[in-house]
């Protein structure tokens, strides 16, 4: 089972302290997946010095590269 699937099988999904670890594992997994399959997203992440391994705690979420709505309207991103 993939980390993102395990996240949704938690009996207390909204117990935030208990779900932080599975959430971060799923987020790292999904971010790495998109970086492998989407050259544009990979370029954005690399330009900002981001790698999924940097997501170790909830406090690291700010490290995720933002993608603005304007960028999404002007570019086709496919994973």
Short précis:
The protein is an all-alpha fold and 79 residues long. The protein is built from four helices and no strands.
**Class derived from helix and strand content:** mainly alpha
Order of SSEs: HHHH
**What is the percent of helical residues?**
40-55%
Radius of gyration: 14 Å
| Overall pLDDT confidence | 86
Describe this structure in words.
- The chain is built from four helices and no strands.
- It is mainly α and 79 residues long.
Looking at this protein, list some descriptive labels.
79 residues; mainly alpha; 4 helices; 0% strand
SSE topology sketch:
Blueprint: H1 3-8, H2 16-37, H3 39-47, H4 69-74
Helix pairs in contact: 2-3
